[in-house]
Amino acid sequence: MTTVGIIGAGHIGSTLAKGLVDRGYDVVISNSRGPETLADLVAELGPRARAATADEAAAAGDWAIVTVPLKALDAVPVAPLAGKIVVDTNNYYWERDGRIAELEAGQVTTSRMLQRHLPESRVVKGFNHIMSGDILTDGTPAGTVDRRALATSSDDAEAVEFITALYNQFGFDTVNAGPLDESWRVERDRPAYVVRQNADELEANLARAER
Question: What Å distances lie between residue 14 and 20, 33, 131, 163, CA to CA?
């Protein structure tokens, strides 16, 4: 799988696009404002990248990354992502997204919300608890002492294997937090959120998270 559809071109989306291009992937990236607004980014990324609409990016990708504000989840294309692994970087910021009652009540997770929106896709949590500026700078080779670890969560075992391999390409170990309903453990304001931690520390932070 060598073509990635990226839906969302903010800090995380743009950074992952660069990292993926540098690792030999072809990238089709979109935002809410239209492909023409991504001309500078695509020029910077080089010939392996092109801008498109969200529907086009979703259709072009062998797999996809959804990295949009949570309030924009309903605009994510559904049919073109059916059957595909979809990496979910989303977080809930009520200041930006507005209050979402079922999240406030702990009745759902952000990743479960995306999975509900994409019932035929295989959603896997990824890159949601690392600052964008660290994604391309904090990675180290496998086996490095105190290597930074990132968490994931999915209902699909193959998707977990996929993100584990992808994390490794970016220089990170992986800790599996379990199914999507456990992904709250790595959401905003939890101990594991946007702190540097190795695998043992991440496992401990996930375990001591309170909902």
Answer: 10, 15, 13, 18
How do residues 35-61 score in pLDDT, each as one tens digit? Answer: 999 999 999 999 999 999 999 999 999
Report CA-CA distances (Å) from 59 to 3, 22, 70, 93, 198.
10, 22, 21, 28, 36
**Domain extent at residue 85:** 3-207
What does the alpha-carbon distance between residue 42 and residue 30 come to, in Å, rounded to a whole number?
Answer: 10
1 has pLDDT over 70: no
200 backbone φψ class: left, alpha, beta (φ>0; ψ -120 to 50): alpha
DSSP helix/strand/coil, 6: strand
The count of structural domains within the chain is: 1
Contacts of 128 by beta carbon, 8 Å cutoff, 6+ apart = 88, 89, 90, 91, 110, 186, 187
Record the pTM.
0.97
Tokens in use for 18? 């660069």
CATH number at residue 94: 3.40.50.720
